[in-house]
Amino acid sequence: MKTLNDFNFKNKKAIIRVDFNVPLNDKFEVTDATRIQAAKPTIIKILEDGGSCVLMSHLGRPKGKQEEFSLKHIVAKVKEIIGVNVKFVDDSIGEKVEEAVANLEDGEILLLENLRFYEEEKKGDVAFAEKLSKLGDIYVNDAFGTAHRAHASTTIIAQFFEDNKCFGSLLAREIESIDKVLNNSEKPVLAILGGAKVSSKITVIENILDKVDHLIIGGGMTFTFVKAQGGSVGDSICEDDKMELALDILKQAKEKGVEVHIPVDVIAADDFSNTANTQVLDVTQIPDGWQGLDAGPKSLAIFDEVVNKSKTILWNGPLGVFEMESFAKGTIALGHSIDNSTKNGAFSLVGGGDSVAAVKQFGFADKVSYVSTGGGAMLEMLEGKSLPGIEAILK
Ligand SMILES: Nc1ncnc2c1ncn2[C@@H]1O[C@H](COP(=O)(O)OP(=O)(O)OP(=O)(O)O)[C@@H](O)[C@H]1O
Ligand SMILES: O=C(O)[C@H](O)COP(=O)(O)O
């Protein structure tokens, strides 16, 4: 696995694929700069070697050239975080870009315009990728969040750099962290899978059963498992067509010696609303008109015990509807348990869109061992898939 340390970038131009797909508010200000922060070590290493950086990224899912998706909105933020002036060119290929790259001096950074302004990017167009490849001497992929996309700048471009390509330090760290959980883990290993639906996590659950000793299933998925075993779930979210599968997962877990922990009680509400009436109910006895929106106190006590005896912890998906204060307690309590266990030496990895939002919102981001910058990319790795962006560097 070639990394930045295999190269000296002195007098070299690095063309770096970063994932600066960051959220913006209605004033086009960056509201969460984690992904920019995460790319800093790679950029700094190249500048300190005496090289220059040509940064390329996508932002959102524009349909053609849409001003609101321009990367010009993030230039100031990148400059603030990296601490070096950032030049911007309002295109990603063509004469203007080539000129800007030619004028780029060692120690300087140039940010290109949103790659997805060209439909060739998502199509993985070879000619477009080749044009991008001309913009640097060494190709660095540091875009973990987009590594599951076989796009021109993430995958196809790599073929134009025989030996001169490598993983950026973020991408390398993401791969190592997931590997530490899935393949090189200290036992007992625990996976906590929450979130809304069983259907979006089936492949993850199936892949993970071979890797873990304990599995906590929470969030909206709970009720498909409970109903499949004969419980009454009232109006809780439930995928009836996945009940067979839920039973099969439980059977597989038993055969593989994996202990599965599902909430035994829930905070039930009479409406999907923060101001609904609530009561704590046995998870198997939720009457019609009520729905489980968070894990209850007995469940949290059990989960706390499991988390604290685990040495490796993977967390994907919230335990309840954490966006509403009334149903955030389970997710917060789980965060505290993981914090505690991490302090006692466990390795904890949090990944997935909503769980990462939750750990940030509740202040646990600095308390776990590693927070992934990938949503879809992280899930695909947990499903056991190989990611095209990673494969392209290894070829
Ligand atoms: N009991 C519940 N009933 C309904 N929705 C729930 C329940 N528990 C959690 N959710 C919802 O599940 C959503 C998160 O599900 P999702 O599967 O997207 O999570 P994730 O794995 O963190 O994110 P991603 O899939 O983007 O990686 C949250 O919006 C949360 O409100
Ligand atoms: O935020 C993400 O998950 C990545 O930047 C990929 O974005 P995409 O789902 O639009 O390809």
From TrEMBL:
Q: Which residues bind (2R)-3-phosphoglycerate?
A: R35, R116, R149
Which GO biological process annotations does it have? gluconeogenesis; glycolytic process
Protein's UniProt keywords contain Cytoplasm: yes
Subcellular localization, as worded in the UniProt entry: Cytoplasm
Pfam families linked to this entry: PGK
Q: In which pathway does it act?
A: Carbohydrate degradation; glycolysis; pyruvate from D-glyceraldehyde 3-phosphate: step 2/5
CC annotations in GO: cytosol
Residues that coordinate or bind substrate? D19, F20, N21, R35, H58, L59, G60, R61, R116, R149
UniProt GO molecular function: ADP binding; ATP binding; phosphoglycerate kinase activity
Name the EC number(s).
2.7.2.3
**What superkingdom heads the lineage?**
Bacteria
Where does the signal sequence lie? none
Sorted keywords for this record are: ATP-binding, Cytoplasm, Glycolysis, Kinase, Nucleotide-binding, Transferase
Quote the subunit structure annotation: Monomer.
Designated name of the protein:
Phosphoglycerate kinase
Natural source organism:
Polaribacter reichenbachii
The uppermost taxa in this organism's lineage are: Bacteria, Pseudomonadati, Bacteroidota, Flavobacteriia, Flavobacteriales
Query: Which gene holds the coding sequence for this protein?
Result: pgk
